[in-house]
């Protein structure tokens, strides 16, 4: 029960059915049609174990002159006892055409006592279960929880929309739908009883986010206003801006101003900076760091992979070191004296900017004065890691400001729901000089044709990424590994430097390969998804992704963003292996139809659902169990509208509602 999260009576009451079985009526065996799911009653005329390719229990059930075969591939002696010849039996299952007429395979069955048995008066619920919990046990437990759970209304009058039923009535109907209730409406979750459940869940989530926002507003953060004033001639911010080899776009200027305004307040910033691949988030992070450093505080920048962290480190070092700013580099692979020296620089404050992976938040890392933490690709960190970072930051007397960056734009409904306590800044403009990327989808059989096209690009002095999804051979997926592909391409491109990059290489080897490719000395780079984010090679004009159907939509969009970073026309080739699943087909279709990150994110949310989109699966908790942001936008708007006043005027009711619906899951919403 614990595995299913069924700890409290209210948890059992809120453990709602996946579907229903109609045991309220009997269908005559003579009236059965192929494809029907029906309940029948009859007398067993024969019960034999047949030895075919494997042993099967074959039972013949008769009603008058009509006959139905019940077939069991897996069976026990108890089956034969209940289904003995002459026994009256009630069975329910899907009717299909068998070799000897109509049959049901593995139907649900039970003996009918002499004198008959009453039919169910409501649809029979089928609950989400685990292997250890049979439905019969779960039904009894849920029924018991439903009786004991406190289901009185805790919300004041006027909060719940008038067209929705009382919570107790809604739950009673969902667990025991009366005869005549539309099973389709129940299973599609469009019944008014479902609307009440979804509204309450969304309201609890909104209240939780508002509570977190108010708690944060009570915290104190350093006021990061530059000594000379941001943008003043002598400020680090102004000197960095002047030293950059490019000008900021209007969108970058706007978000820099939004972040600077937050940093100048005594409350901790909690802001998400979102922008499509290549929109220039790193320079915004650098300018934000300059404001913090100018005010005498440290800044930490955390990235999910060493390659991305190193990319940031090199770029920031190039921009800030000439201005006299100390930059430290911390990753898990840095050991011994080099690591100790870096830790000392961080602890003393000599390193004003600290760049690294999750190693930045490890226990032994002590900051002198951490004023700003920047998390890049924040959705790539598990919920537990994001919570660990927030706890780490909270160890200080003053809470640092927090800037999260994402190249996976957040669809509006998701932002309204999961990011209700976040301020969002959006870079909705790409730097000038970027060329549109053309996306082509090809079956794997046209690989040789693609190789020829790649050879033409290399001959023009262009560079090519060739991405493969696995490092080692997998019999289950039958995918070619990076090593095999590298060997094949090296043979095909005689005289051309073809590199290999994968996650199991030592950091120094990865860095050496990337340096070769970045410098242009290497023309083709065969890589796993370690190059997914952050790698910036303007001369790369072709991205080939093998087995593209195996990648997520956001991942495909990120990989595509590695090309088109210069003035050269670029192409992304998606190679797929048949047969395509419906999900795989949808992903490739979306990639071929749009390069807009927001549209990609919207479709990704549709395909995957919010839990996976957010990386919630890494926490083991679904963020929304009942509501669907794609369909329940109206209910979300209603919940958002009433939440602030409810929290303000009826804090006890709001707290009771949050506890009822979220219990111990509130922390995950804060991450």
TrEMBL record:
> Per UniProt, what is one GO molecular function of this protein?
ATP binding
Q: Name one GO biological process term.
A: DNA recombination
Domain called Helicase C-terminal: residue spans:
446-606
Question: Catalytic activity, per the record?
Answer: ATP + H2O = ADP + phosphate + H(+); Couples ATP hydrolysis with the unwinding of duplex DNA by translocating in the 3'-5' direction
Q: Which UniProt keywords apply?
A: ATP-binding, DNA damage, DNA recombination, DNA repair, DNA-binding, Helicase, Hydrolase, Isomerase, Nucleotide-binding
Q: What is the top-level taxon of the source organism?
A: Bacteria
- Give a single Pfam family match: DEAD
Domain named Helicase ATP-binding is located at 262-427
What is the enzyme's main class?
A: isomerase
Q: Does the keyword Transferase apply?
A: no
Gene3D superfamilies from the UniProt entry? Nucleic acid-binding proteins, P-loop containing nucleotide triphosphate hydrolases
InterPro entries recorded: ATP-dep_DNA_helicase_RecG, DEAD/DEAH_box_helicase_dom, Helicase_ATP-bd, Helicase_C-like, NA-bd_OB-fold, P-loop_NTPase, RecG/Mfd, RecG_dom3_C
State which Enzyme Commission number(s) the record gives.
Answer: 5.6.2.4
Q: Which function does this protein serve? A: Plays a critical role in recombination and DNA repair. Helps process Holliday junction intermediates to mature products by catalyzing branch migration. Has replication fork regression activity, unwinds stalled or blocked replication forks to make a HJ that can be resolved. Has a DNA unwinding activity characteristic of a DNA helicase with 3'-5' polarity.
Q: Which family does it belong to?
A: Belongs to the helicase family. RecG subfamily.
What is this protein identified as?
Answer: ATP-dependent DNA helicase RecG
Q: List the taxonomic lineage.
A: Bacteria, Pseudomonadati, Pseudomonadota, Betaproteobacteria, Burkholderiales
